[in-house]
TrEMBL record:
Coarse class of the protein's main subcellular location: membrane
Membrane-spanning ranges: 50-68, 111-130, 195-223, 243-261, 273-299, 334-354, 390-407, 440-457
Protein's name according to its UniProt entry: Uncharacterized protein
Subcellular location: Membrane
Pfam families xref list: TrkH
Alphabetic keyword roster: Ion transport, Membrane, Transmembrane, Transmembrane helix, Transport
Annotated membrane topology: Multi-pass membrane protein
InterPro entries, sorted: Cat_transpt, TrkH_K-transport
Any one Gene Ontology BP term: metal ion transport
GO cellular component, one term: plasma membrane
Gene that encodes it: gb14448
Family membership noted in the UniProt record: Belongs to the TrkH potassium transport family. HKT (TC 2.A.38.3) subfamily.
Source organism: Eleusine coracana subsp. coracana
Molecular function in Gene Ontology: monoatomic cation transmembrane transporter activity
Keyword Ribonucleoprotein appears in the UniProt entry: no
Length: 486
């Protein structure tokens, strides 16, 4: 009997094992299908976002070109292709122009100001926040309306049933559906609240910086520098307020356009004006995340403070949590500010060390030289305004500026373990190992360092024999030495 029961239980166990294997394979297949669907949805969203951005900037450039062509110029009218190129440069904040800026009239300068403002990264991100907020509110409203209709239909059906059991089961089913959708709706409501708070904070930063910056520049020109900057603008037939607003918008959006032909070189001796523009260039580009984090902390918005501690593009509760690229945790903001200060310090030291008595700073006082060096260092990432002729600078400085322009604005030395789901370092690594890994630079960085060092040591030969000693030949030699080219 025991042998017979054992022989009968063996096929049953095999059947159970086989069923478990089939269930596991089915679950893996469903997971793979779900992953494929999520990948397709992510690619579709990325392409849709790219197309929306392309359409936005193309429409903005075409509208700007139309307005520039319709308004009369102060001098000879530029060619159509040059006007369109200038409009595209202003809309994409790339500050490349094929015509002299003093050709444009006051109305055309206003158009260029609007293009730079609408094409700035902060404003574009603000439009993205508004779009997400509107879409999320509409989605939440539709979900709430559909759930209320389901509850009402369930109650009517339950009241029309004769048996109490049917009434209880129908109410249980409806309540189960609502409770299952509750967490999703709650998270969507939290995201909508975050978006609303963040939208108004970014909008406030945008408004305060532009208004305060324009008023500060105009007030300085009117009252503190009536014989310097104001006389220069009067000689170029530029209105003070037009210049102030244009310069503030261009500096904050990291465009680099100036309404003068010489860019900021005409104000190279005006140190206070440069110091007014330096903070605008920083908060509009590399230091925008620390400024945003400080405003969030000052606003005491609990939902945004929680978001700062877990602002990573990860899945929460079965859905992707809201993510804003410019909002960073406090520790990363501190390290970003320290990195920016270190980069500026290195550039200022190199510029002052190599050009203190050079042609670029000839005729300036020590204070003016220092302020010009700071202005150049800040604008190398990535505003592009210049107070000197860059061709007069030493090759080592130009190479360093190129490296600074190549670096992304939020490049950060961060030797700490990240709290997000995707960490850069395994948890078993010690702090020393992580510090070493973050300190080791890329091969391209070392090439740039050696090129700059050689340009400094061979500075005399670069001036005396530019045919055999130039930056291009130094780059070729450095690359040839570190590669098996021979």
């Amino acid at each position: 009997m025991a042998g017979a029961s054992s022989s009968r239980s063996t096929p049953i166990r095999l059947a159970e094992v086989l069923q478990r294997c089939l269930d596991g394979a089915a679950s893996l297949s469903r997971a793979y299908d779900h992953h494929q669907v999520m990948e397709r949805v992510a690619r579709s969203r990325a392409w849709r976002s790219l197309l929306v951005h392309v359409a936005y900037f193309l429409a903005l450039s075409c509208a700007g070109y139309g307005l520039l062509s319709a308004i009369e110029t102060r001098g000879p009218r530029p060619r159509a292709i040059d006007a369109f190129f200038t409009a595209v440069s202003a809309a994409t904040v790339s500050s490349m122009s094929a015509v002299e800026m003093e050709v444009f009239s006051q109305g055309q300068l206003v158009v260029l100001t609007a293009l730079m403002f609408l094409g700035g990264e902060v404003f574009v991100s603000l439009v993205g926040l508004a779009s997400k907020w509107s879409r999320l509110r509409k989605h939440t409203t539709n979900r709430v309306g559909s759930h209320e209709e389901e509850i009402e239909l369930g109650r009517r059906k339950a009241s029309s049933d004769v048996f109490v059991d049917n009434e209880a089961s129908s109410l249980t089913a409806v309540n189960g559906d609502v409770s299952s959708n509750g967490p999703v709706m709650m998270m969507a409501a939290v995201d909508a609240k975050r978006l609303r708070s963040l939208f108004f904070i970014v909008l406030g930063i945008l408004g305060v910086v532009h208004v305060a910056g324009s008023v500060a520049v105009a007030g300085y020109i009117y009252y503190a520098s009536p014989g310097g900057a104001r006389r220069t603008l009067r000689g170029k037939s530029l209105d003070v307020w037009t210049f102030a607003v244009f310069t503030t918008v261009s500096t904050f959006s990291s465009c680099g356009f100036m309404p003068t032909n010489e860019n900021m070189a005409v104000f190279s001796r005006d140190a206070p004006l440069q110091l007014l523009l330096v903070p605008q260039a920083l908060v509009g580009n590399t230091l925008f995340p620390p400024l945003l984090a400080a405003c969030v902390w000052a606003a005491r918005r609990k939902e945004l403070l929680e978001m700062m501690t877990s602002n990573s593009n990860k899945m929460q509760g079965g859905r992707r949590s809201f993510y804003y690229y410019h909002l960073m945790p406090a520790r990363r903001c501190w390290m970003l500010a320290a990195t920016v200060a270190a980069f500026v310090g290195v550039q200022v030291a190199l510029v002052c060390g190599m050009e203190w008595d050079g042609a670029a700073f000839r005729g300036m006082t020590a204070w003016e030289k220092l302020v010009n060096a700071v202005f150049l260092a800040v604008n190398s990432r990535h505003t592009g305004e210049s107070t000197v002729d860059l061709s007069t600078l030493a090759p080592a400085i130009l190479v360093l500026f190129v490296v600074m322009m190549y670096l992304p604005p939020y490049t950060t030395w961060f030797p700490f373990e990240d709290n997000s789901t995707t960490t850069d370092y395994p948890s078993a690594e010690s702090q020393g190992i992580r510090l070493l890994k973050t300190t080791v630079l890329s091969q391209l960085s070392y090439l740039a360092i050696f090129v700059i060092a050689i340009c400094i040591t061979e500075r005399k030969k670069l001036k005396e024999d530019p045919l055999n000693f130039n930056v291009l030949s130094i780059i070729v030699e450095v690359v040839r030495q570190v590669t098996p080219c021979g």
